[in-house]
Task: inverse folding
């Protein structure tokens, strides 16, 4: 008579228990544990009780006998939101794993997701941290697979869905979800006609684990069972040959995307059927873009001397041109509004599903063309009001297209291409994470129309259950919550803040000044390291802007 083995739920464990079970029995050792007392310095100012591990557990030990690090996010604290300390813990763990792997010490990295994305009470600290986590993962993947697990409960949303999209292997349960925008945010931004966030069947059909695996956006669908999940983690590390990461499979996903007509009804079953049949007949209709004015458009034309940007490119909203800057070729990329865009939710300059894959393609083209020569600089002109908020975008994997853009910028930077972001307007949320935040130099206009943030005030108020006036009051105590560029500059991430330029109607002197400053940023980037560490070494960062981020890294290094 066969013995029936009872399943043990992985989902029901807390973050610490999950990390412990992934590692070999008896090897778990926690870094920066609650006894170290490193908690968020930003929550108490807002009347929120901080937690001594800030909702992230970092465990060292072994997996199948090899050194490993497991990072586990606790969804029961602040919805698993990523703030300065929690984000720095994840980034520091992967940066140290990268250091060891570079030195020939193989360390297996695993990330257990249970997060709604950026912690809105710390806002731009979350954006900075997630960009640094993504940077570390892309570099780490060159040496060892990075394995992600989304067990269930909250899932993986916001910027952390982009992070999940960078993992080599992604394991999900049937109860798990992954998407760039939470259903409540889509409903807030686009209306209940776009999506009813209370419709659970609709939500799981769109972004649930089974759907994601069946549509090529995750690798393994597993039962909620400790042994099963552990077995799949081991399996991911046991493969002899490393597969190309999903975020680098640009041609495949562009063909898949072009096989849909967004003007027609598209449901979960259509997506699964199309992916499994691998029959990607193009249904994309080439239309001339109807580009409208935006700061991103104005500055792209000014910096490239472009007189006609009405391109016949498949995705006209992504402008790309090589142009000389002080005698050297530079690739300029900008996302601009296109009233004729195939996807209606990305017609006002948002980064949508087509934009993410297209940015990635333009960057990889530059990488291939420059192989064996001097890597050209890439300048991202930034004026992006948000990512697209739409049902079809989420269903077809918006987070994965954003991960492709992140992967492309980070890969180019790692290969020696100076990447400079020039912020001329809005730099918001997942759009900025995808298009700009991987730059090793951030240059911006000092102008009231330049804003950096996580989401609109209306959505932030709904998610945090505060009024807009309460949120605005909180920005006086926590500058990272503010939208204006001068507050963002106090965090220490900016390379240059340019004064005295007419942002909307630049004259010849304005353009000449900006070109000169961009050239200086490119020279500086070529002289510095290829990673994002310069954001932690500026005088503003050291004097307080990233104080907690620096302390976490120093202590993690001591305990590693």
Result:
């Amino acid at each position: 008579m066969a013995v029936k083995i009872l399943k043990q739920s992985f989902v029901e464990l807390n973050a610490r228990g999950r990390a412990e079970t992934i590692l070999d029995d008896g090897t778990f050792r926690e870094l920066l544990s609650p006894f170290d007392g490193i908690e968020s310095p930003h929550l108490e100012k807002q009347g929120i009780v901080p937690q001594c591990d800030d909702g992230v557990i970092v465990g060292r030990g072994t997996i199948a006998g090899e050194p490993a690090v497991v990072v586990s996010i606790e969804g029961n604290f602040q919805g698993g939101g990523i703030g300065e300390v929690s984000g720095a813990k994840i980034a520091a763990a992967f940066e140290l794993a990268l250091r060891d792997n570079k030195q020939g010490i193989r360390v297996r990295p695993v990330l257990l997701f249970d997060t709604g994305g950026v912690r809105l009470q710390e806002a731009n600290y979350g954006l900075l941290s997630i960009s640094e986590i993504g940077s570390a993962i892309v570099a780490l993947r060159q040496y060892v697979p990075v394995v992600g697990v989304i067990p269930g409960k909250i899932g993986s949303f916001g910027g952390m869905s982009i992070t999940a999209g960078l993992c080599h292997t992604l394991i999900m349960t049937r109860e798990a979800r992954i998407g760039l925008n939470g259903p409540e945010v889509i409903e807030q931004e686009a209306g209940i006609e776009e999506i009813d966030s209370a419709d659970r069947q609709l939500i799981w059909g769109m972004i649930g684990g089974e759907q994601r695996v069946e549509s090529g956006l995750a690798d393994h669908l597993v039962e909620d069972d400790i042994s099963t999940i552990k077995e799949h983690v081991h399996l991911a590390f046991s493969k002899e040959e490393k597969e190309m990461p999903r975020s680098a499979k640009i041609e495949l996903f562009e063909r898949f995307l072009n096989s849909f007509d967004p003007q027609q009804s598209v449901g979960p079953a259509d997506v699964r059927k199309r992916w499994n049949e691998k029959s990607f007949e193009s249904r994309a209709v080439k239309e001339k873009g109807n580009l409208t004015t935006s700061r991103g458009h104005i500055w792209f034309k000014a910096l490239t001397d472009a007189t006609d940007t009405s391109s016949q490119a498949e995705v006209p909203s992504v402008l790309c041109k090589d142009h000389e800057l002080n005698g050297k070729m530079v690739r300029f990329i900008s996302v601009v509004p296109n009233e004729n865009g195939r996807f209606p939710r990305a017609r006002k300059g948002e980064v949508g599903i087509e934009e993410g894959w297209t940015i990635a393609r333009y960057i990889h083209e530059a990488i291939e063309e420059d192989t064996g020569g001097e890597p050209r600089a890439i300048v991202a002109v930034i004026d992006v009001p948000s990512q697209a908020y739409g049902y079809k975008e989420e269903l077809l994997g918006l987070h994965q297209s954003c991960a492709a853009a992140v992967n492309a910028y980070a890969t180019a930077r790692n290969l020696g291409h100076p990447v400079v972001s020039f912020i001329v307007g809005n730099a918001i949320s997942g759009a900025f994470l995808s298009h700009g935040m991987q730059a090793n130099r951030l240059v911006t206009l000092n102008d009231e129309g330049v804003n950096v943030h996580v989401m609109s005030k209306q959505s932030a108020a709904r998610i945090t259950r505060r009024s807009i006036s309460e949120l605005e009051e909180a920005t006086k105590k926590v500058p990272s919550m503010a939208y204006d560029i001068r507050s963002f500059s106090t965090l220490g991430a900016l390379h240059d803040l340019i004064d005295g330029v007419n942002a909307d109607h630049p004259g010849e002197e304005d353009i000449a000044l900006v070109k000169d400053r961009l050239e200086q940023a490119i020279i500086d980037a070529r002289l510095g390291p290829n990673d994002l560490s310069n954001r932690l070494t500026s005088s503003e960062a050291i004097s307080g802007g990233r104080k907690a981020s620096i302390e976490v890294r120093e202590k993690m290094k001591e305990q590693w």
Q: What stands out?
A: The chain has a mean pLDDT of 92. The longest helix spans residues 508-527. The radius of gyration is 22 Å. The longest strand covers residues 419-428.
